[in-house]
Amino acid sequence: MFSGRKLKEARNKRGMSQAAVAARMGLSGLYVSYWENGRYAPNGVNMVLLLRALGCELEEVTE
């Protein structure tokens, strides 16, 4: 299951802002904020883009 808390940890570990992650994905920074705060979870396509933007594995953002 996707974890906004773990996403935030993975992003901070890499020294990236929400805006930087979103820019690499071609999205608005609001998406990353919503995901981290548990308002929404990324769909399949956005999950792949998120993992690529962060350079991480699925296990780093799921519980």
How would you describe this protein?
- With 63 residues, the chain is an all-alpha fold.
- Helices cover 59% and strands 0% of the residues.
- It starts with a helix and ends in a 9-residue tail after the last helix.
- GO terms for molecular function: DNA binding.
- InterPro entries: Cro/C1-type_HTH, Lambda_DNA-bd_dom_sf.
- Residues 7-61 form the HTH cro/C1-type domain.
- This is Transcriptional regulator.
Short description:
By secondary structure, this protein is mostly helical. The protein is built from four helices and no strands.
Largest sheet: none
Q: In CATH, what is the class?
A: Mainly Alpha
Shape: globular
Q: Give me the oligomer status.
A: single chain
Instruction: Kindly provide the radius of gyration, computed on alpha-carbon positions and rounded to a whole number of angstroms.
Output: 10 Å
CATH topology: 434 Repressor (Amino-terminal Domain)
Number of domain units: 1
Can you give the mean pLDDT?
97
Give me the strand/helix succession: HHHH
Characteristics:
63 residues; mainly alpha; 434 Repressor (Amino-terminal Domain); Transcriptional regulator; Lambda_DNA-bd_dom_sf; DNA binding; Cro/C1-type_HTH
